[in-house]
Amino acid sequence: MFSRDTWKEIFETIQKNKLRTFLTGFTVAVGIFIFVTLFGMGNGLNNTFMEFFGNDATNIFRIYPSQTTIPYGGFKAKRQIEFKNEDIDEIVKEFAPLIDYTTPQIQRNATVTYGEESDNYNTRGVAPGMQFAEKNILMRGRFINTNDLKERAKFAVIGRMVQRDLFKGENPIGEYIDIGGSAFKVIGVFQDDGGDNEERYIYIPYTTRQLIEGNNDKIDQITLAFKESIGYSGAMRFQGKLDAFIRQQKIISPKDPRGIFIENVADNLKRNQQFANVLKIIISGIAFAVIISGIIGISNIMVFVVKERTKEIGIRKAMGATPGIITRTILLESVFITTLFGFVGMIAGIIVLNFIRGDELKDNYFITDPAINSGTAIFVTILLIICGTIAAYIPARRAARIKPIVALRDE
Amino acid sequence: MIEIKDLHKSYKMGSNSLHVLKGINFSCEAGELVAIMGSSGSGKSTLLNILGMLDEADSGSYTLDGVPIKNLSETKAAQYRNKFLGFVFQSFNLINYKSALENVALPLYYQKVARKERQEKSLQYLERVGLKEWATHLPSELSGGQKQRVAIARAMAAEPKVLLADEPTGALDSKTSYEVMDLIQKINDEGNTILVVTHEPDIAEMCKRVIHLKDGVIVEDKQVEQVRAAQYVQ
Lengths: 411, 234
Description:
Chain A is α+β, with helices and mostly antiparallel strands. In chain A, about 55% of the residues lie in helices and about 20% in strands. Chain A has two domains: about 5-55 and about 270-410, no CATH class; about 65-260, no CATH class. In chain A, the strands form two sheets. Chain A has a six-stranded mixed barrel. In chain A, helix 1 (about 5-15) packs across helix 11 and helix 11 (about 325-355) packs antiparallel against helix 13 (about 375-400). Helix content of chain B is about 35%, strand content about 30%. Chain B has a six-stranded mixed beta sheet with strand order 6-7-8-3-9-10, with helices on both faces. Chain B has a four-stranded antiparallel beta sheet with strand order 2-1-4-5, covered by helices on one side. The longest helix of chain B is centred in the C-terminal third of the chain and has 16 residues, at about 175-190.
């Protein structure tokens, strides 16, 4: 079956029928190419989505204070609500069984200097829980711990990009950096899957920030992680109770649209994931349609090719070719062409995906790292080869079965 | 060499069937050169196709070189054709994308002859039909007579027991026809059995035996004084 002679015969036929070979191959290559690029783009779109919404912990409420709009409980409207350390304690006391961890957050921009290098960074005064809320992974050293909070230590945990820009790749652990006029010792470096911007933060103990700002006890924002075991509906109920509790504590009208705002990451994520899923379904649908039309294209070409060769098949049969040999030759030819061009189309698609990736695509079209899993690409290519083979087999077998006399009469 | 008894064949054409061969009895010895004549529709091509296992008879027996040809599978028929028979067609039936040499080598390829031997043998047969210099040319670059000579070389290359020629001169002018007949006569002189279907009397006279078919039966079977084609060829 795979003798050198058989292949030689096949190569000769392929070489001497360039147009036919090209038509068949082109159909296959284009089908695979469109599939790979389209699917890659779809993945890129999905990546952008995941990058936007998918890299923080999902069991998170973020509680923001703001101005009231309704006079309530003896207070005028337009009162600025502020959170203090004890507010967190009250919340934890009230809802302890539902809470995993909490962390306050005090965000300040500051000029940060190390040696000759200096830049403006966002510093965040936080508690140890922040590491889990942001899903930060420590590359070196450690995160802020409760002891640092107690001692109001001037310690800083810096992002990977901060290390790169300020330290130029040197080990920063134990070095001192200047943050807005105070010297902080670097105790850790973290990375974050959320992209470069998430790695430009500097974390310090929130108590240290409060000490620097006149030993106050104000906090900007509270991040609260609920126990994941309460589930999505449990989280929604918890959100309602929490909202009511804080309004009661801070004397805010239950009807006030402002005053405080609770951002529910799980709820956001759920909606975004639904959107991403719909997107994926649409892209898969289109990709499926491309594959189907590719298969139909190959089948048509194969029917045409075999039809065109009817007379040749008649001649070969008169010369002593058995139906088996005829079918096998046509099949091998088809498999060879579809395999060759299928992989050419696949590789071309992957090259294009690699070529077009970049910031421009990301910023303008929301496509991040368009890529196709090589397993999927190879699977679809092989699927198309198999379908092409089946598509070729049916007309080939029919052609091999027609009586030579009928085939010879074919003009 | 060939022996057929009471051969019947009819074609279905819609609801009515056309009875083409109505009981043919015929035998021929090795080394004969037989012309099968008849007007169009007399069944001569059908007879040749059945002899060539390109078509099947409805009833009757056919024995080729002592082998009964009956109820053959397509595969078996192909193997027998390859082993026993060489074909020459009116419309040449060369494969248009293969060179003259490759066309001649085709039956050898299906006989599983090694490539090198195939090439040598094919070239040898092309030389015998006087087309050695044209070995690498495609059929489209050859004249009608040259094409038919390539086809004859192809038929002979497999060294068949019987050479079947269906109107070998039908598409050629008379001068070229005589050249082709001269070649066929020379091949016959070497002891090969040849059956030629024709409707041209002058071609038939160049054979050794003439069979007349009319309405599906043999009406005449006679030995003739062979006219040598060489005298018409310069």
